Amino acid sequence: MSTITLLDEALAELCEVQFATSGYRKPVGYFRSCLAQQTNGELMLFVAHAPGRYLGHVKLVWLPDYPPFQAGGIPEIQDLNVLPDYRRQGIGTALITVCEVLAATRTDTIGIGVGLHPGYNAAQRLYPRLGYLLDGNGVHYHDQPVKEHASYCFDDDLVIYFTKRLR
Length: 167
Description:
The protein is α+β, with helices and mostly antiparallel strands. It is 30% helix and 32% strand. The protein has one domain (3-165): 3-Layer(aba) Sandwich (Aminopeptidase), CATH 3.40.630.30.
């Protein structure tokens, strides 16, 4: 049985150790850095976990870098991660729902971005199923609109954004 809780010191340590062995990359100290940002009120990081096991996490960023979300005062769900062995069990949906419930206490709209490369295929299918609609601002690279006929690196920073009305 999994639980979703707000990141704290103990969970930050668990996440650092277990995420590092998952085959995915985060900078060393990533979760501790998120904890400091959470303490400063910049974001909230929720962790899905079972006794002694990290399953996944998500951030809710109150003032994201993406200009249309900044201008609209729209908080952004970022960095949704569920370890492969725990996917398709509702954990990602539960993490997103926690963010939506919290965001609804401050705003009526929430945003989320997703990379365009195939590593994000599951998220690309999930977000519309949960009621997210394209925000209408097209593809962005490093939070800036791509220019027609220009070339961009097909990496995690080539993103399209969605929004959802919460109330």
